[in-house]
Amino acid sequence: MSSSPLLHAIPRNALLWLLIAQALVIAPHLFHIPPWIAGLWLFCALWRVQVYRSRWSLPRAIVKLAMMVSAAFAVYVSRGSLVGLDAGVALLITAFTLKLVELRSRRDALVLVFLGFFAVVTGYLYDDSLLAALYSLLPVAALLTAWAGLQQAAGSRQSPRISLGLSLRLLGQAIPLALLLFVFFPRLEPLWSLPQPAEKGRTGLSGQMSPGDIAELSQSTELAFRATFDGEIPAKNQLYWRALTLPLFDGRSWRMASFGTDLLPGQWRKQGASQAYSVIMQPSRQPWLFSLDISESTQADVRMLGDFRLQRNRPVARTYLYQAEAWPQAVAEPLLSAAGRRHNLQLPRPGNPRTREWARQLREQYADDRQLVAAMLAHFNQQPYHYTLKPPLLGENSIDEFMFDTRRGFCEHYSSAMTFALRVAGIPARVVTGYQGGEINTAGNYVQVRQMDAHAWVEYWLPGSGWQRADPTFQVAPERIELGLQDALGDEVAALDNSLFSPVRYRHVAWLNKLRMGWENLNHGWQSKVLGYQRERQHAWLRQLFGEVNWQRIGIGMVAAMALLLGLLALFIIRPWQQRPAPAQRLLQDYDRLMRRRRLARSPQEGMQSHAQRIASQLDALQLQALEDFVTVYQQLQYSGDGNLQQARYALRQLWRSMSPRYLRKR
Amino acid sequence: MQQWLRRWWQRRLPPLSQIRLSQRQVFIVPTVTGAAFAVALLLMLLVAINYQNSLAYALAFLLGSLGLLTALHTWRNLAGLELQARTPEPCFVGEQAQFAVQLPGGAYRRPGIALGWRMPLAVQTDVDTSRDVLVKLYLPASQRGWLRAPRLRVETRFPLGIWVAWSQPDLNMRVLVYPRPLEAGLPLAAAHSDDQREDGLLEMRHGVDDYQGLESWQLGDSLRRIDWKAWSRGQGLWVKQFNELQGSDTLLDYDGLQGDSEYRLSVLCFHVLRLDAESRPYLLRLPDRLLGPDSGAGHRDACLVALALFGKEPE
Predict the structure, then answer these.
(1) How far is Cα A129 from Cα A117, in angstroms, rounded to an integer?
(2) What's the gap in Å between the CA of B69 and the closest CA on chain A?
């Protein structure tokens, strides 16, 4: 024992916990790291265990170097790069694994524990759901347990459970302080930009719309966003969540305006009542947000563009929370510029002659724009159109074929056809994509919008009144708007939704649905209160609390609160009232307790000697001997100071024994 | 500076053979591990800030709070610890002097208490509630006389090694170090022979003056005192008992030896031990005192003490 404690061998208990912790840390990473790392871990763990059992020896430096280089090479081959978050995390986990075979001293083990904590943090970048957060408590507790186990003497055979209890206690005691820090620690803007987790086929709206796109999206029950309203939730048929406008048409697809043409906010006039709401958006990797017509946001990183959509200054890579206020009756762009007019009347030259002809006829019939639009909607309503997720494939003149031959389509078919016809009739129009409706969670007063609520509708422009919304799909399948996709399509959705465990599938089983709603509620709270607790939220909250955000004052307050909390914890942990008295005093207390139990209590002013004399008559010879022994040793201890504490304790034990109920019975 | 520090310690923790480390006597500082942990936390916080990840913030804060909080545990683990010095056994120069410190079990378990004279500390032990722990510490005894133990260092890094709580109590421990026994010829002189012979070796004079009677022989009795006549008569082994007279006792005389004083004391020490092992009475004469004649453990110890402290300042 001549070296620093950090260089001592690793206790068995700690090694066991390290292996458990590693498995727990690595498991959730398996979703995004190359799977061979799991095999590598098993191999390294086996090696380390064999080293512990003195069967194998740790690898030499050259072998370790070879392992490291080949592992890095394997990461490069699997990920195609050694930079970027994915490769970085894969490298981190590999290092975390390989460190196992050079685990000699406690210092190595500590490095492993710290790497483990870091690996848990990187795991949050991939998954920060409530379940993932709860799960991560397991590896954290295991790492702490291993750490606590490292402090034991090398040969210690202490039960692994003792370190576990200790680490759980520490975690529990740390929670109040951590909460305080979480709430008040200032959320800073990112100091520099970092690589983001790679995207793996996330579903969502894209910048263009071809027939079949939205129908495909409708098969996903994945959450798109949740919206919480300050007041009452508007009726479902008012919930048109605008994401994008698609003014450009090439005969088949509708696309966004080319970049830069609509950067300035459109002209609009507030009118009527407004409604405040906040949205927690799932990561979409796109900058556009979802808003009710017409919304403005005071958030610094969000602005309104020319087509009245809200856009963030960078893509939404993580769950994102924003506040907005909608003015449903506002007048949008009462005056359309010549360029805007041209834009929204643009048509590809050839194609779809039958629809063009039909629109021209309508124009001749109705001089008034409003009447024309009404007639078009009536057409969709009265003709035998069918709303379906599985429309037949369309050929060259897709709009013609849909309008007059197949008559079966999804919202993108209807909105596309109507916009086309309106433009032929000389009315500026565009396709708007976004989401419609959503599931209203009455308990949480929020609307939950899934990918399957994706929708496309039409916006046309009237002089003086601005942009108006028209939804041909509503004419064909009103239940789609009033109730939702599932009610409109019933079996078709159930058949398409091929996931047996999809929660939405069982929405007609009442208790299951209730359970699901509760779970959604919990997730909503998690996202808004925890994940969404970033700069904006924090400021809003602090303003609510203190009136203004003055970091100097908050800082002082926080330090004071922390000191107070630490003081309380100190009281709880140290328990000064439990600090035991001096040993001699303790002996006296034990003696008094014994005498009280035997109904021979010593009165407060009575000395031990006189007490012993007083009760002597009630004791038998053995007890008297034990009493005398104890009194003698105790007094030596108490007064001459050279008494033997152990001897006194022994004498007291003898006295207890001689007066125990068992002995008394025997007598 | 060192002087000042020593005086400061003296005021803070005056030497006491029984001590309970009070709040003012326990100090706490972060360790190297603690610093490394702080760096790791800072990295986590950077990830949290740059990725704006609430969970990363939460974990960094949780671990940070935990680290802060373990200071309380570390401190509690040492504060209130009782240390009792046991009276140490004397030893000889060249041996390791053993000091025993007793740590009585208290109201709660105190794992990982380390004790020693200097870093790295020699002993680590857990102090349970149920029983006392006896810790043995060693110091090389290089000089005869009183060996005063330096201030003890007692510390604990429990539970995570982020903090170290320590104290330096002085348990007022000292051990008497006897001279190193040195085997060498001895000019023996009887105390009564005033005409001390210069040539040194005298024939040994056993106390043969007053014959007392016979006792049965026991292992350790000198063979010279066996009553061989009785044995030859087949009456068994008997030892003649003499009441030795003062005049005939063996004299161990400091002045009768040559060489420097340490050498002389070492030789005397050897002979005290030898004569004691042979259970023979002897006298020890030092320039300033005369011990004996006597025999037995008490006399031997008195002689050894005198040898150990010869020429030393009384403490």
Answers:
(1) 18
(2) 7
Helix (H, G, I), strand (E, B) or coil at B240: strand
Residue A386 pairs in a beta bridge with A408
Nearest Cα to Cα of residue B59 among A521, A125, A192 = A125
How far CA A565 is from CA of A174, B61, B71, in Å, comes to 10, 14, 14
> What is the per-residue pLDDT across B43-57, written as a single tens digit (0 to 9) for each?
999 999 988 889 999
Domain ranges within chain B, ordered by starting residue: 2-177, 189-209+244-309
Over range A356-363, report the average pLDDT.
92
The 3-state DSSP class for residue A269 equals: strand
Torsion from C-alpha of B222, B226, B231, B236, nearest 10 degrees: -70
User: What does the pLDDT read at residue B287?
Assistant: 87
ipTM for the predicted complex:
0.75
- Any A CB within 8 A of B256 CB: no
What burial class does residue A543 get, using C-beta atoms within 10 Å of its C-beta: 0-12 exposed, 13-18 middle, 19+ buried? exposed
Q: Show the CA angle centred on residue A235, arms to residues A231 and A240, nearest 5°.
A: 100
Q: Which residues make Cβ contacts (< 8 Å) with residue A263, sequence separation at least 6?
A: A305, A306
Interchain proximity A174–B65, CB inside 8 Å? yes
Helices B32-51 + B54-78 axis angle, to 10: 160
Active site residue A230: no
Is the per-residue pLDDT at B196 higher than 50?
no
For the record, the structure tokens of B314 come out as 């009384």
Interchain contact, A181 vs B160, CB within 8 Å:
no
The pLDDT value given to residue B203: 37
State the Cα–Cα distance between residues A179 and A185, nearest whole angstrom: 10
The whole-angstrom separation of Cα B40 and Cα B43 is: 5
